[in-house]
Amino acid sequence: MIQMLKRQIETLTLDFDSDKYEQKLISLQSAEKNYEEKSTFHKHFKGQLIMPIKGVVKTTIDNSIWVASPGNAIWIPSQIYHDNLTAPNSEVYMLFINPSLCKVFQNACTLSISPLIRELIMFLSKQPLDELFNKTNDQAVDLLIDQLSKMKVEFYNFPLPNDKTLRSIAEKWLDNPTDRRPISYWANENAMSEKTLSRKVKQEIGLTFDQWKKQLYIVLAMQKLNDGTSIQLISEDLGYESVSAFIVFFKNALGCTPKKYIKILKGNK
């Protein structure tokens, strides 16, 4: 069993089947690849934390697109269908946790990752699976679970509502992110009042219409910066009138400037 796992780690893919192993927690490092990698649409009994320490990971979970970069991670609860996509040259760690160990996060989310959690996950990934639950490692596992429960929940995602009208709007935005037409246009396009459309968005995803659109800008900006697209071009692609306006938006959303974020993506502080 251990030799089989060792061989799988050497060619680890994003749809690794953690349910083949009885251990309640598995921490693994995915080998850095110089190409984009995408998993199949799948689910597993164990919850999954996907933590990039370089590059970007994108996860699609039925009704939302989630993005994580160094400093945060995507949490996927037990038995939730999803697929994962890593950008070329990303360095990613995956943590699989039995639901009995971690009951705090019932829904998908992104989590802020502290340096301590990062080091604990990296440490556990280096331990042989058959020795993962010895006295020393037990303490590390207990500390990791405790610290995860205290991490700040973030929402680096773009919701894809089930409602046909809202899903249609979301898909049009994805096709053309520069589309800045106001809510009045979309209400008229779908034969409803602005109030009705606003209420529908709030009921479906818990955001205002403008907040929903900004979530798309966050996700796309994170991906485009990782792809090496210039800040100037990203601001144009997202329909901002100036680079400075985009930089202000980005800093308000992620807490750092695009230039600082690029350094973080490369694994630099």
Automatic annotation (TrEMBL):
Pfam families: HTH_18. Coiled coil: none annotated. InterPro entries: Homeodomain-like_sf (IPR009057), HTH_AraC (IPR018060), RmlC-like_jellyroll (IPR014710), RmlC_Cupin_sf (IPR011051). Keywords: DNA-binding, Repressor, Transcription, Transcription regulation. One of its GO terms (molecular function) is DNA-binding transcription factor activity. The keyword Membrane does not apply. PROSITE patterns: HTH_ARAC_FAMILY_2 (PS01124). Residues 164-264 form the HTH araC/xylS-type domain. The keyword Calcium does not apply. SUPFAM superfamilies: Homeodomain-like, RmlC-like cupins. This is AraC family transcriptional regulator. It comes from Francisella adeliensis.
